[in-house]
Design a protein that fits this description.
The protein has 8 helices and 7 strands. A hairpin with a 4-residue loop joins strand 6 and strand 7 (244-253). It has helices at residues 2-20, 33-36, 39-44, 46-72, 81-97, 99-105, 121-125, 172-190; strands at residues 110-114, 139-147, 152-159, 197-205, 213-221, 230-239, 244-253. The relative contact order is 0.10.
Amino acid sequence: MFGPRRVFQSQIRHLANHSKTPSRFRYNPTRNASTAAQAPTAQSSRWPRRLIYAGIFGSLGISAGKWMDRKIGEPAIPGTEADAMELEEINRVYNFGLPIVQELRNNPDYVESDVYQNYTDEEKAHRLTSGPLAGSRALALQKVFWNEKEKKAINVVFLGPGTEGWPTIVHGGALGTVIDENLGRVAIRCFPERTGVTANLQLNYRAPVYSDQFYVFYSTIDQEKSTDRKAYVSGEVRDVIGRVCVEASGLFVVPKKLKLQRVGDKY
């Protein structure tokens, strides 16, 4: 919207300056006939400006209409053609439109992976984040960049309109679920058992998180405090320009009396 708005403002300034300038075509009985004959030309010269205004307002109206249609319209149902088209566009932006993705791919310390590679399609369907929250309407995309040296994960996530609480704002509980998983991934990779559960999770919401946007989740383990059965992990959620939206910390443990499924070496 910034482009059209700047064009619109420049046109308004031009109109204001023009209105302060004495018109060359006011009636003057002393002018000769050839000068007076130029008046119709002045009137006709207004048409290009009117066409510019019409184009500007028309473009703004179309953009606003599309935005409103997207916001108030029903999100695409997973598995439909509309959902596939949305996912294709989201993946295109991820691959070619996010500088942080290119930066991480060029860093040899980070390895890129998909999420839920350890689960079958049937198992994914019964998990909250890969079942009910699947598709372009919710968790449309999750990619993990793992740094083995620093025991650190950077996760790029797209949060669709199905994660909203208030209109355009991601629900705090949905956001907490994604944060819990991202912190837990780091903890589990550091446990010899390759499994674990959340014992404590603390969140500090600092700024709104908007739907239909990409966000970056940072997770790091405290290697000095952590053991083979306890992991202290901290993290942040940032938007694509680096603003901190959520601060988080968690304690993850491997239960002694409860036998859990081994997650595996992937995500």
